[in-house]
Specification:
Elements (H helix, E strand, L loop, with lengths): L3 H15 L8 H15 L19 H17 L14 H14 L1 H13 L4 H11 L2 H11 L2 H16 L3 H12 L9 H13 L2 E3 L8 E3 L1 H28 L3 H8 L15 H18 L11 H5 L18 H11 L1 H8 L9 H18 L9 H9 L6 H16 L11 H18 L8 H4 L2 H8 L1 H10 L11 H27 L10
Antiparallel strand pairs: 1-2
């Protein structure tokens, strides 16, 4: 049940989000309105075939059913919302309904964070971490302005991690399987769950007799039984989600919607990852070819420069550096995830390979997919920041430093999503307030604030977002002449340096640095 303080905090959060209703909303608003219409107007067999709009249904079945449930309320609220041919409908009643559904669905996140706080011992720092997550700049930007349902989805993830912290590994694995059937982007962190559950749940150890050499032996019978229970739970979840479509022979069509590979390496706006730096390096070499012919780059394809900076979703062309095929990003992602596996399988007691290591591994798996994945969206930074925020309950100083740098850079990288003049003050104020609260309130395991933990260079980097804001948000467009893409490129590249730096720091901290404790109970 909600206590008085929790209820008051929830009301404050809802109040803040209600103030954002008049703000701009992206094409994702029409995407979800169209999905309401599809699921309400058509039989199940046609959900993944409807293509009357470019915004076709491309989320897994549980999310489609979620839209169907919302569509029942939408039909009562305003029947025009669920009319399939009413494309682009954005009357005030429609805006109010869809904004309200995002707020209501975030109750899942709120209650999940409450469970996480209890699993963490109810400490002050766990409450601060939960509050910063619930009111994160990322959710405010992406869900309550841009328009999506990430708070609801990440609430399910937090529930899964909280179950693991409580020792309910079977429930944690089953909940994660449910999450995969809501949104398949979470498959990037599935390897962490697979290894964790194999070690912590399926592998049952029993003590050897005193006359036998060694400490413990694998109990084959008990291990097989647990594996069967976990496998059955996962199969049942996926059967419920995909079974009706499999029965109609529609799995190939559904797969084609969930995994479209016709998009380019980078999104229209380069997500701040390794490939953003790679693209930027190619553009620098193009410019260098103009002024230094001796470099031997005279044959560079200058048309490639516009191809990935004009704001279109398509193939990314390179003029100097080699083109990157999808298989290369897949291999790079797998290699980059190795530290995440090391976190879970390195030697230590079962307790030391426990839930805190699961969260660390989830962070590193998500990070690897963000850094090296194909066509990464900037919004995917939430897949790193949400679980990493759960590790700020009693973090080491390095973990807290990396979180401070990453959260500042990651949330700032979302600024291009809110490009309207009326959102300028909103996004600046929201991020500034959130960052100041995080730097002041979060403490390391030695009681040192996040700001005090930062090295001088890291402080300068965080403060560097201020001149970046002035240059990219306040200067008029004509100041950049023909280089109209430059403001977006500057945001992408500057934040990519912070994202990359934090990734390297967390890889060292979680996978290579063995001497510290990953969690303290107060």
């Amino acid at each position: 049940m909600l206590g008085g303080k929790n209820l008051a905090f929830l009301c404050v959060g809802v109040g803040v989000k209600l103030l954002l209703w008049p703000a701009y909303h992206s094409t994702d608003f029409e995407v979800h309105r169209n999905w309401l219409a599809i699921t309400n107007s058509l039989p199940l067999s046609k959900w993944y075939f409807e293509d009357g709009s470019e915004w076709t249904l491309d989320y897994p079945p549980f999310f489609a059913w979620f839209e169907w449930v919302l569509s029942l309320a939408a039909r009562w609220w305003d029947p025009r919302i669920v009319q399939l041919d009413n494309l682009g409908y954005a009357a005030s009643s429609c805006v109010e309904f869809q904004r309200l559904t995002v707020i209501v669905s975030e109750v899942v996140l709120f209650t999940a964070l409450g469970r996480f706080v209890r699993a963490s011992g109810g400490t002050r720092q766990s409450k601060i971490a939960a509050a910063l997550t619930f009111l994160s700049a990322g959710f405010l930007f992406v869900d309550h302005v841009h328009f999506q349902y990430n708070g609801f989805l990440f609430g399910i993830l937090v529930y899964s991690l909280a179950f693991a912290m409580e020792g309910h590994d079977l429930l944690a694995g089953t909940t994660f399987a449910v999450l995969l059937c809501f949104k398949h982007i979470f498959m990037y962190i599935a390897p962490a769950y697979f290894i964790y559950l194999a070690i912590n749940y399926c592998a049952v150890l029993r003590s050897r007799r005193r006359s036998q050499v060694g400490g413990c032996a694998l109990d084959i019978g008990a291990s097989v039984w647990r594996l069967a229970k976990l496998g059955t739970a996962v199969v049942v979840v996926f059967a419920v989600a995909f079974g009706p479509f499999a029965a109609k022979g529609q799995l190939p069509q559904l797969a084609s919607r969930l995994f479209p590979f016709k998009r380019g390496l980078c999104h229209a706006y380069w997500a701040p990852n390794f490939w953003a730096l790679y693209v930027f390096a190619d553009r620098l070499l193009i410019l260098a070819s103009r002024f230094m012919p001796a470099l031997g780059l005279a044959s560079a394809d200058l048309s490639a420069m516009a191809a990935s900076t004009r704001g279109l979703v398509g193939d990314t062309s390179f003029a100097v550096l080699p083109d990157i095929p999808p298989i290369a990003t897949f291999i790079a992602t797998l290699l980059a995830q190795i530290p995440a596996y090391v976190v879970l399988i390195r030697k230590g007691s079962k307790k030391r390979r426990g839930p805190q290591r699961l969260i660390q591994s989830v962070v590193l798996c998500a990070y690897a997919s963000y850094m090296f994945g194909w066509h990464v969206h900037e919004k995917a930074i939430l897949l790193i920041l949400v679980p990493l925020g759960l590790l700020t309950v009693a973090p080491t100083q390095r973990t807290l430093r990396m979180f401070a740098v990453l959260s500042t850079a990651g949330y700032y990288s979302l600024f291009p999503l809110l490009f309207g003049a009326q959102e300028l003050l909103i996004k600046a104020a929201v991020l500034l307030i959130w960052v100041l609260c995080a730097l002041a309130l979060l403490k390391s395991d030695r009681g040192v604030s996040a700001w005090s933990c930062l090295l001088r260079a890291e402080r300068l980097y965080v403060l560097g977002h201020i001149p970046l804001f002035v240059a990219t948000e306040l200067l008029p467009g004509y100041a950049f002449g023909r280089l109209q893409f430059l403001p977006l490129a500057l945001v992408s590249v500057y934040t990519a340096f912070g994202v990359t730096y934090s990734w390297l720091g967390l890889v060292y901290e979680f996978a290579l640095h063995h001497s510290h404790s990953t969690h303290k109970r107060h």
